[in-house]
Design goal:
The chain has 381 residues and is an alpha/beta fold. It has helices spanning 2-29, 94-97, 107-114, 130-141, 166-170, 178-190, 192-205, 230-241, 255-277, 290-294, 301-313, 321-327, 345-362; strands at residues 53-56, 63-66, 86-91, 118-122, 148-153, 281-286, 317-319. α3 (107-114) crosses α13 and α4 (130-141) packs parallel to α9. The relative contact order is 0.13.
Length: 381
């Protein structure tokens, strides 16, 4: 027993010494840690690392996140809100937040350009669904006193609710990382060895990790081969994601998805009540899946169900499908497919133009200069 204990002690000390030497070597000769994976973990408020520039160099397309003191992508905002100022808060997941896009190219940033005299707050973050969006609204956005809140729905919002109950979605809380996740965060963001190990491991689990060795931040990073093959890319999308969101593709009935849709509806009703109590106007924007957008005959049952709920709540509803289809011009793709299914800068601008027209029509009494915003259906052209 004593010999076994001695052997284990020697092995442990050897591992610690070897790890220490590797840590020192990576710091001295490889310039690690570089903060490569800082953006994987939320900040104190459930958003991005606060008051930091985070280069997401490892993703399928590299991009830069510049966050303010609250973790919102954008500048700091005065609180309380100055008299006479109009604010719009854009809530949502990675599509709304602008994953794979620099701050100026995100849909909320382009929306602000299209709405003169309005402050648009980008309150999105990748990986969120209605529970996280409600938490951000309540804890971060509400003190900034938005006049209008725009919630964007995407197909994967339902799968994000798998592990939650209706009560947890209706009354969410920002859960701390926990000891295990906090240690993982420290290891991969503060340790040179942890960052290097994850960098080596990621290609095994993600096809898009550092895809195509895109390293620059110029417009060429958005040039994707096959991006205009919309129908073929839509079928690839279906084959890849139909197991997660079967109801969006008509492949089968899915009880889990039905349960998650019920949870989402409960969260949306709670968010609507919260906004009403604070004098904010809530609007709902449905972002179609890539399959729904470009595959002929794709099901529309889920957006129609959400549309009916919005009607019950007196909430303006916008389905982006017609506008995005109209904006898909020859040789001008709006998405990064087949590399990735997030919008490119043109896609984000198309979304912003459609949402600007929608808000001008729905809230002309609140938005200054609303009469000057293009409101035709082909606004994104």
């Amino acid at each position: 027993m004593r010999r076994l204990t001695l052997s284990l002690t020697v092995a442990l000390l050897s591992a610690v010494v070897l790890g220490g030497l590797m840590e020192v070597g990576l710091r001295l000769f490889a310039g690690r840690p570089r903060g490569t994976f800082a953006g994987l973990f939320h900040g104190r408020h459930g958003l991005y690392p606060e008051s930091a520039d985070t280069l997401m160099a490892w993703s399928s397309v590299p991009y830069l996140i510049r966050a303010n003191s609250l973790g919102l992508r954008g500048p700091d905002y005065e609180a309380p809100k100055p008299a006479g100022r109009v604010r719009v808060a854009a809530l949502g997941d990675s599509v709304s937040a602008g994953s794979l896009l620099d701050n100026p190219d995100t849909y909320p940033a382009r929306l602000q350009e299209l709405l003169p005299g309005v402050e648009v707050i980008n309150a999105g973050r990748h990986g969120m669904s209605v529970d996280g969006e409600f938490t951000v609204l309540r804890d971060v956005v509400a003190p900034l006193q938005p006049d209008i809140v725009v919630l964007m729905f995407c197909a994967n919002d339902l799968a994000e609710l798998d592990s939650l109950t209706v009560e947890q979605v209706r009354d969410p809380v920002l859960r701390p990382l926990g000891l295990r996740r906090a240690l993982v965060k420290w290891f991969v963001t503060r340790s040179a060895l942890g960052e290097a190990m994850l960098d080596l491991y990621m290609p095994r689990i993600s096809l898009s990790y550092r895809a195509g060795a895109r390293t620059g931040l110029g417009p060429e990073r958005y040039e994707v081969a096959g991006a205009t093959n919309h129908v073929a890319n839509a079928l690839r999308y279906r084959d890849r994601f139909s197991g997660v969101c079967a109801g969006f593709y008509g492949t089968r009935e899915d009880r889990r998805e039905e349960d998650n849709l019920t949870k989402y509806e409960a969260g949306l009703r709670a968010m609507a009540a919260f906004c009403r109590a604070r004098g904010a106007r809530l609007a709902f924007v449905y972002h179609p899946s890539y399959f729904q957008l470009y595959a002929p005959g794709a099901p529309v049952l889920i957006q129609e169900r959400l549309r009916r709920l919005c009607e019950e709540e007196g909430m303006p509803f916008l389905d982006l499908t017609p506008a995005l289809r109209a904006g898909t011009l020859p040789g001008r793709p709006l998405y990064l497919a087949p590399l990735d299914y997030h919008p490119n800068p043109d896609g984000a601008l198309a979304m912003a133009r459609a949402v600007a027209a929608f808000l001008a029509q729905s809230f002309g009494d609140v938005l200054p200069g609303a009469a000057g915003v293009e409101t035709k259906e082909d606004v994104i052209r």
